[in-house]
Specification:
Elements: E1 10-14, H1 19-30, E2 34-39, E3 47-48, E4 51-54, H2 57-64, E5 68-71, H3 75-88, E6 92-95, H4 102-114, E7 120-122, E8 128-131, E9 135-138, E10 147-154, H5 157-166, E11 172-177, H6 188-197, E12 203-209, H7 214-225, E13 230-235, H8 259-268, E14 272-274, H9 277-290
Parallel strand pairs: 1-2, 1-5, 2-4, 5-6, 6-7, 10-11, 10-12, 12-13, 13-14
Antiparallel strand pairs: 3-4, 8-9, 8-11
InterPro entries: Cit_synth/succinyl-CoA_lig_AS (IPR017440), Citrt_syn/SCS-alpha_CS (IPR033847), CoA-bd (IPR003781), CoA_lig_alpha (IPR005810), NAD(P)-bd_dom_sf (IPR036291), SUCC_ACL_C (IPR005811), Succinyl-CoA_synth-like (IPR016102)
Family: Belongs to the succinate/malate CoA ligase alpha subunit family.
Pfam families: CoA_binding, Ligase_CoA
Length: 291
């Protein structure tokens, strides 16, 4: 098992003919992902890496049965691309694009909600999702870790990769990079809920960062609903107040959104929180060995 993405997933690439779309289509294909089509209305009828290019998402779904879209469209076109995917009824959209205006993300998130949340959005400004050895949708390197029984949900792309590497001897069921923008689609809580019900995930690593209250809300959810062991890490203990750090959503205002407050909330919910990524990995290794 894996959450949201597995070896049966049929992936289409919105923006497949652009430089990023081409590069990562090739990478995903090498990883064994089933890339069945891509979209560019001006280049329909051509192909990229042997993958056919169609005019629209709806046409791609009709011709190939695609059920996942990965978006590599530039920021100005991302909103239209995601809304097109929602209108076509695709179950999962992974938005890799960085720099999407927050009001655009708010608009397409609200649009998905108005359509009954039948389309799950991961991102934007995220590395995507990988179920090692099964499928890869996004920019996460496919050769860091083998398949295993740890689930990972993270705001940070680079910390996702580091955690995968540090725990490569154990492996992962699915790793989800949710992105660090102020407004995102899939949240820590969504991933925690999915991992809780996944029979092949035994333990969960959750990586957060300063800014907002997502980690505090996740802590409350863990306390009430998650029975599997969770280990956490919060980036940003030394971040200066009032300065955006890395992600648009990683900003501390006064006492709100600090790493310490998030760490305390998680520990109160029974989550073991590491002071560094490496310590967090060691804590998870100890948990897995004890299962």
């Amino acid at each position: 098992m894996a959450i949201w993405l597995d070896e049966t997933s049929k992936i289409l690439v919105q923006g497949i003919t652009g430089s990023e779309g081409r590069k990562h289509t090739a990478r995903m294909l090498r990883a064994g992902s089933k890339i069945v089509g891509g979209t560019n209305p001006k280049k329909a009828g051509t192909d990229v890496e042997g993958v056919p290019v169609f005019a629209t998402v709806a046409e791609t779904i009709e011709k190939t049965g695609a059920d996942v879209s990965v978006v590599y469209v530039p920021p100005a076109g991302t909103k239209a691309a995601v809304i097109e995917a929602i209108d076509a009824g695709i179950p999962l959209v992974v938005v890799i694009t960085e720099g999407v205006p927050v009001h655009d993300t708010t608009d397409f998130w609200a649009y998905a909600k108005s359509r009954g949340n039948s389309t799950r959005i991961i991102g934007p400004n995220c590395p995507g999702i990988i179920s090692p050895g099964r499928s890869n949708a996004g920019i996460i390197p496919a050769d860091i870790t083998p398949q295993g029984r740890i689930g990972l949900v993270s705001k940070s792309g680079t910390l996702t990769y580091q955690m995968m590497y540090e725990l490569r001897d154990f492996g992962f069921s699915t790793c989800v990079g949710i992105g660090g923008d102020p407004v995102i689609g899939t949240t820590h809580i969504d991933a925690l809920a999915a991992f809780e019900t996944d029979p092949d995930t035994d333990a969960i690593v959750m990586i957060g960062e300063i800014g907002g209250d997502a980690e505090e809300r996740a802590a409350a959810y863990i306390d009430e609903h998650v029975t599997k062991p969770v280990v956490g890490y919060v980036a940003g203990f030394t971040a200066p107040e009032g300065k955006t750090m890395g992600h648009a959503g990683a900003i501390v205002s006064g006492s709100s959104g600090t790493a310490l407050a998030k760490k305390e909330a998680l520990e109160k919910a029974g989550v073991r929180v590491g002071k560094t990524p490496s310590e967090t990995a060691r804590l998870m290794a100890d948990v897995v060995r004890s299962l």
